[in-house]
Input
Amino acid sequence: MTRIHSTTFRAIALAAACLWAPLAWSADEEKPVERSYVKAPDAPRVQSKSEAEAKSAGCMTCHNPIDQASMHASPSVVLGCVDCHGGDATVAGPADSNGAVPKAPGHGGDDHGHD
Output
């Protein structure tokens, strides 16, 4: 091989090794996870405020207090939590012996932070 071809070959081999090495090291560390995605129904065009509240009831047992009843600035958008975020609004947080649902750490307290 000529000197130019030898230098080019070494550069290509080095680049290939640099690109291949991280893939080889990560092969033992990460495994694909089986996922099953469900297509949620579209959010309703029209619903009453009470219907939207029912679709947020369980969510609000943990995710409360909040600044406003909807994430939308316009009061004309009437949606419950599960209309956009999915899930089951009948599931409530665990109640304590007095029947109160404790706040999740970092949610709804004075710290205004999230975990």
Remarks:
- The longest helix spans residues 3-26.
- The CA atoms of residues 58 and 92 lie 4 Å apart.
